[in-house]
Amino acid sequence: MTGKELYYIAEAHFNGSLAGDGPFTKRCHGWLEQRTGCHKGLLTHSCTAALEMAALLLDIQPGDEVIMPSYTFVSTANAFVLRGGVPVFVDIREDTLNLDETQVESAITPRTRAIVPVHYAGVACEMDAILDVARRHDVRIVEDAAQGVMSTYKGRALGSIGDLGAFSFHETKNVISGEGGALLVNDPALALRAEVVREKGTDRSRFFRGEVDKYTWQEVGSSFLPGELIAAFLWAQLEEADRITQQRLASWQRYHDLLAPLEARGVLRRPIVPAECRHNAHMYYVLLAPDVDRQAVLQQFKQNGISSVFHYVPLHASPAGRHYGRVHGVLDVTERQSERLVRLPLWVGLPEAQQDRVVAVLQGVADGLARDRSS
Predict the structure, then answer these.
(1) Which residue from 72, 62, 49, 63 is spatially nearest to 316, judged by alpha carbons?
(2) If phi over 0 gives left and psi between -120 and 50 gives alpha, with beta otherwise, what is residue 206?
(3) What is the pLDDT of residue 80?
(4) Are β-strands 140-144 and 164-168 bridged in parallel, bridged antiparallel, or unpaired?
(5) Which positions ≥6 away from 282 have C-beta within 8 Å?
(6) Helix, strand or coil, per DSSP, at residue 102
(7) pLDDT at 20
(8) In the Cβ-directed half-sphere of 10, how many Cα atoms lie within 13 Å?
(9) Euclidean distance between CA atoms 78 and 320, whole angstroms
(10) What is the pTM of this model?
(11) Residue 346 CB neighbour total at 10 angstroms
């Protein structure tokens, strides 16, 4: 907790408004619209739900293809597979581990309906190139900005650049509500439909604004709203979003400085953030050298009481990925980098002494590797 979470939860209870779209939800919507510049921001009960809404809004039909990286969380693909869509997995870049924009155009077929760039670790994809391809081929862009709250690309908030964007407020993210997410609607033509899809397929929101005299079932939708207690908790976090980001960036930069000598020795590679990207310090990871045994490193962390893990198993290598999706081209970078990556502990208020312990373990790995290389 970073602020007034419990106070606002009590206030929501006192107000007697615990269902969705109460006062705290509206405050969160206002924050999203003001801070990102999106046309409409809508809280959802998860980022997964926001992506599922995107699939409904784009009217994804069986056989429609959606281009995305394989190195992402299952929700990126699941949301479209639920509508019968086919994930088309494309390789990632060596530097940012984001969707390789140079391979997107060749993956487009007559069945392509959307491109889903995933902003890994809160670092933006090369959106100008992806936007150019999408415009020329008349396909939509859904930004999976689950990790991108408070990050920007050339001054534009992640999630606000494509037709639609999705945020996550899961407890593993920077700004949290336990479970939670948001859909950012950037195409004004989709705004009213987004409200309908989110409200079980009804025009209930228009009814409460006095725009219709009753609300009825309009199209396929579901219950994508979070309760007001979730929104109250989230509002307390959003009030502190700048401070949260600043503190995380300080810890991120300290890791970055401490690990520079190990990168120079060829033991690991540190994250790369392009100049046009302002990131949010969502994650600090390292890519171990090919001759470093990742499992042995993770075991060293465990023995020292440090929680450190790797990240995604590429979707194209999973049973469901093979069944529901297809691969475009060769995913060499995806497979290679996913086997080398290790995430380091990072949270608001991470003590410097604990960072030193983490770096000391990696230093020990480096010393052992130096002995092996010289023998």
Answers:
(1) 72
(2) alpha
(3) 98
(4) parallel
(5) 121, 122, 147, 148, 151, 173, 174, 248
(6) helix
(7) 86
(8) 4
(9) 9
(10) 0.95
(11) 18
* Whole-number Cα distances in Å, 64 to 58, 59, 67, 85, 324: 11, 10, 10, 5, 12
DSSP result, 211-237: SSSS--B-SS--B-PPPHHHHHHHHHH
Query: Three-class SS of residue 288?
Result: strand
Q: What is the DSSP string of 347-359?
A: -TT--HHHHHHHH
Residue bearing tokens 């000391």: 360
Pull the structure tokens for residue 272: 């790369």
Q: What tokens appear for 304 in the block?
A: 């020292």
pLDDT digits (tens, 9 = 90+) for 68-119: 999 999 999 999 999 999 999 999 999 999 999 999 999 999 999 999 999 9
In this prediction, residue 375 has a pLDDT band, given cuts at 50, 70 and 90, of low
Which position has the token pair 């859909």?
183
Which among 46, 116, 121 has a CA at the least distance from the CA of 87?
A: 116
> Phi/psi of residue 162, each to 5°?
-80, -170
First to last CA, the chain: 50
Cβ atoms 366, 267 nearer than 8 A: yes
Backbone angle region of 344, left / alpha / beta, with phi > 0 → left and psi within -120 to 50 → alpha: beta
8-53 residue pLDDT tens:
999 999 988 898 899 999 999 999 999 999 999 999 999 999 999 9
Task: Find out whether 159 and 143 touch, Cβ atoms under 8 Å.
Answer: yes
Tokens at 261, concatenated: 């000598």
Angle between helices 228-239 and 241-258 (to 10 degrees): 60
Decide if 282 contacts 174 (C-beta within 8 A). Answer: yes
